[in-house]
User: What shape does this take?
Amino acid sequence: MEFYLPTKLFYNIEAFSAELDKLGEKFLIITGKSSKYNGSLDELTRILNKTSKKYEIFDETKENPPKELIEKIIEKHGKDWDVVVGLGGGSPMDTAKAAAVLCKNNISVEELYKSQKYDSAANIVCIPTTAGTGSEVTQYSVLTINGIKKGFKHERIFPKLSLLEPKFSLTLPRDLTISTGLDALSHAIESALSLKTNSFSELFAFKAIEIIKETLPKLVNDLKNYELRKNMLLASTYAGIAISITGTTIAHSLGYSLTTDKGIRHGIATAVFLPFEIENADNKNSKKVRYILGDMLNFLKKLDVQISFVVNDQEISKWAENVANSSHVKTTPGNYNYEKIKQAYYWLIEKSGIYRG
Assistant: This one.
């Protein structure tokens, strides 16, 4: 068994700012537009101004960040940065990780996926403003390369510091609260089911499932509740720690095409496949997931999760081929091959009422 978590986590802003001061003098902040609205950008710049740090802000991060976005950041802001801060949801944090590697290496975005090509990165700091990806405690970054979502992994992209401040998520609307919450739940369940699971990952995975089961249905009807936001943020981080050990499994791979081709939000696109994965795992951990959570389909219905799009058999065949070639297959219990992966997509069509053209 292995457990490695080099990230320092803070719930207290002042303690976090003292550690931040030690990381360097030049900071590149990568964020989206919402950070101005939720107060997180003002809080971060206040900290940096107090110690006269040099900083620049890139606030044009997109959902499911494409490689062209990373190239644009480097072209616009250069590489001379001690620290790269990812401020926001998973997209800014994943973008910051990619940019931090490029700041210290003369490689292309595509070469991020060849871990032997680099062994350094600028210091990475993550400040999540959603409770979903857990990127603040993982060695993963997911980008969109030529229209396909694809993650890379490297020890050097573990954040040095992360700040968990629930107040930054208080402005999150209902739809994003649900989709990011389901992303965290997907991480926890997939980690628990993974063939790479161990005693350490299970501690965090099952605790995250328990918290999300109790918290998310309440939170969607009480979006300004600080304590519920705090619980979801903690659960998301627990789930992130779990997947830092095990990685994700087939539900993530199945969901990627729904996001890139049909515009379904990542957390929902992943979570709708969880009932199929849980049923097909059929092991002691899948039974424990059911014991804690109950029926996954009912949980999704409780949150009023619905998806709708048009799809044809040719698209499903292409999606299944992509999944069959993914690394997730090897870590998922249930003996997934091309035909079984197609079966998962047709199962979803039957359960969700998706129109098959």
Observations:
- The chain has a mean pLDDT of 96.
